[in-house]
Design a protein that fits this description.
The chain is an alpha/beta fold. It has 21 helices and 26 strands.
Length: about 675
């Protein structure tokens, strides 16, 4: 029961400096058991009287979630027949919740999360997108000092117990069935696909944890795996990862040890997205990009396979894959009912050879792009304004890499240093030196950095000023990466190259850093990508001779669509995420952008209707045909919410549309049409 983890005694100061603990030294790790929600879980909502929270609460209550009230600042009263209180602390005292769901906008979310931590709510779930990275790093610095509150999110669908009918988040309820498969995922849409697949296979789900797609996640794969290991309701485990960070590698290490110590380990299957991601680009999710020293998708797959994990290339296959694994493990007779209809197609192996995994240390960060990746000359200007020794490389001196970035494993900023002298591999030997967000880099770390960079004795004295100056710039201007190339010069360190990325969410969500945002140069970017961005669509044109335009809802599913098309022998021309809440209008706008690419011979629409309704997407496709006078053939795969209605609309339209519910059949048709065009 979560109740046993509530704090006894002690109060929190407003300075966020320390939190009370028991006599034994406890840590954030001790809050993992708070993830085991169920029918016993008492839930409150922050932002309870808002439109989103109200709609979600009505649906969750009807499903069976034990919502006991909520919080709206400066309000006392009732909402949906439940108490409304003005603060989380008062709600903790009067309602005794085990968990809180935070339903406020991104600019309000950090304060709401901090309030919940201070009130020591055992489980805090934040679903908002676009919370600034530095706000999240500050929150993690708070979480590390306490042992009562567990955080899920942000930018996550939440957490849901199908067995206990407890939903804290916005997962599509029709997909779920009480069962015995635990799921942890970075991607919302891919997790919904996995849920639907295990439901069709008759397995159902026990507990589903949305890790989320942010740069820093409050709960990671290993945390979830520890819960699943000891959960009697969970017989099999599904893990859904993607590019960005090292969480999948940490999970692989944990799984290896688990399989050694368990006499009959629970089978694990996984999907990893981003094999064919555009180098150096942010693939929809805020965290779906690689920093220096982070592994690519193929490396993650190799580590997981080496740990005994069964990898599939599309989440549609997870149900039958897990059914087979459970049967082989002797667990098939236990758990939930097995009466659900099996998928029409069996478990498929990957038919095409994939590229050989690259080195764990990536070398393509020179082209790292986010909305606020600025020109090198502007980065150099920023440095000179702050009195750094910075100029163009003269050709003299050995270049070394020094950066300030984000350490996703330690949930903190870090220094990244590489002594590599090969300009083609500037990140070879890159090492991270994490430091506390509130404290900065200490002197002993700077000495370690100097040694790792292999600096001469005459240049070491210049390193503290350089490191501290970069850290100050990183903090003050809310960067996610300040990467420099430096050379030793007459006992000093000169910056001769700069690759700076700043957090777009700081400006978009809170209007902070307007001066940095003004450094963006639209003329340097692809015109179609900028046009799509203005309509809330993430569109990335992929290099090469791809001839299949892709239109997908959800960043994880969009990445996976590009990968799975490649496995089937096709070539995607683009990555396009309409967003998890696509509308008919955004579908039309997406077609408009894709049609501007002359390489495209067919458009492949891959929609999983979780929050998005299948019939609405179908109507959007018809709208696009009528208003854009489309001539290209379109292959449509609609699954999930209102899938039958959507497929019917497509099939009865009389337009050159090909409708499928099976991904492989749809992909094969798209490839056939593209190759015959």
């Amino acid at each position: 029961m979560i109740r046993q983890h509530l704090m006894r005694g002690g109060r929190v100061t407003k300075k966020h400096g320390s939190f009370s603990t028991s006599s034994r030294h406890l840590s954030y790790e001790d809050t993992i058991s708070n993830l085991k929600i169920g029918e016993h879980t008492r839930v409150i909502f922050q932002g309870f009287t808002g439109k989103q929270a109200t709609a979600n609460a009505k649906e969750s209550i009807a499903w069976g979630t034990n919502i006991v009230g909520g919080v709206t600042p400066k309000k006392n009263g009732e909402h949906l027949g439940l108490p409304v209180l003005p603060s989380v602390r008062e709600a903790m005292e009067k309602l005794k919740p085990d968990a809180t769901g935070i339903y406020v906008a991104a600019h309000q979310a950090p304060a709401a999360i901090e309030e919940a931590i201070e009130a020591e709510v055992p489980l805090i779930v934040a679903v908002a997108e676009h919370i600034p990275i530095h706000d999240i790093m500050r929150i993690h610095s708070m979480l590390k000092t306490q042992s009562k509150s567990r955080f899920v999110g942000a930018n996550a669908p939440g957490i849901i117990s199908a067995i206990g009918k407890c939903r804290i988040g916005f997962q599509p309820l029709p997909c779920f069935m009480p069962g015995r498969v635990g799921i942890v995922a970075k991607s919302g849409t891919l997790s919904y696909e996995a849920v639907a697949s295990t439901t069709r296979a008759g397995l159902g789900q026990s507990l589903c944890i949305g890790m989320g797609g942010d740069v820093l996640a409050g709960t990671n794969f290993v945390d979830a795996l520890k819960v699943f290991e000891h959960d009697d309701d969970t017989e099999g485990i599904i893990l859904i990862g993607e590019i960005g960070g090292e969480a999948e590698l940490k999970a692989a290490e944990w799984i290896k040890e688990y399989r050694k110590r368990a006499s009959n380990p629970k089978p694990i299957s996984a999907v990893i997205g981003g094999i064919h991601a555009a180098p150096g680009r942010v693939m929809g999710h805020a965290g779906a990009f690689t920093l220096p020293g982070e592994p690519d998708a193929l490396t993650k797959i190799k580590y997981l396979e080496d740990a005994g994990v069964t990898i599939v290339n599309h989440p549609e296959k997870l149900g039958d894959a897990m059914k087979k694994l459970l049967g082989n493990s002797g667990r098939a007779s236990s758990g939930a009912a097995t009466s659900g209809a099996s998928q029409r197609r069996g478990m498929h192996t990957m038919r095409r050879a994939r590229p050989i995994p690259g080195s764990v240390l990536r070398s393509d960060l020179a082209s790292q792009k986010r909305n606020l990746y600025i020109r090198e000359e502007l980065a150099q200007d920023l440095l000179r304004e702050r009195e750094f020794n910075a100029s163009k490389y003269s050709g003299k001196g050995t270049k070394r890499m020094l950066a300030v970035g984000v350490d996703r494993a330690n949930m903190s900023p870090c220094i990244i240093a590489s002594p590599a002298t090969n300009p083609e591999e500037p990140h070879a030997g890159a090492k991270k030196f994490p430091f506390e967000y509130q404290k900065g880099v200490d002197a002993s770390q700077i000495q370690q950095i100097a040694d790792h960079l292999q600096l001469s004795e005459s240049s070491k004295d210049a390193l503290p000023k350089l490191v501290n100056g970069l850290v100050k710039l990183f903090m003050e201007k809310e960067a996610f990466l300040l990467e420099t190339m430096l050379v030793e010069r007459l006992g000093d360190l000169k910056i001769v190259g700069a690759n700076f990325g700043f957090d777009d969410a700081a400006f978009r969500s809170t209007k902070r850093q307007a001066d940095i945002h003004a450094l963006r140069r639209i003329e340097d970017e692809d015109a179609q990508e900028v046009e799509a961005e203005n309509d809330g669509i993430v569109y990335i044109k992929l290099a090469g001779d791809g001839n299949i335009g892709t239109l997908v809802n959800g960043a994880g599913l969009a990445m996976n669509t590009v990968d799975a098309l490649a496995d089937a022998g096709g070539k995607a021309a683009n990555f396009l995420d309409t967003g998890g809440k696509a509308t008919s209008e955004t579908v039309k706008k997406s077609f408009q952008v894709i049609l501007q690419d002359p390489r495209v011979k067919v458009i492949f629409v891959n929609i999983f209707g979780g929050l998005t309704l299948g019939d609405m997407i179908a109507n959007g496709i018809l709208l696009a045909f009528n208003e854009l006078e489309m001539r290209l053939p379109v292959v449509v795969r609609i699954r999930g919410t209102n899938e039958e209605e959507g497929q019917k609309i497509i099939s009865e339209s009389g337009l050159p549309l090909h409708a499928y519910d099976d991904f492989e059949e749809a992909a094969a048709k798209a490839i056939e049409v593209a190759n015959n065009a």
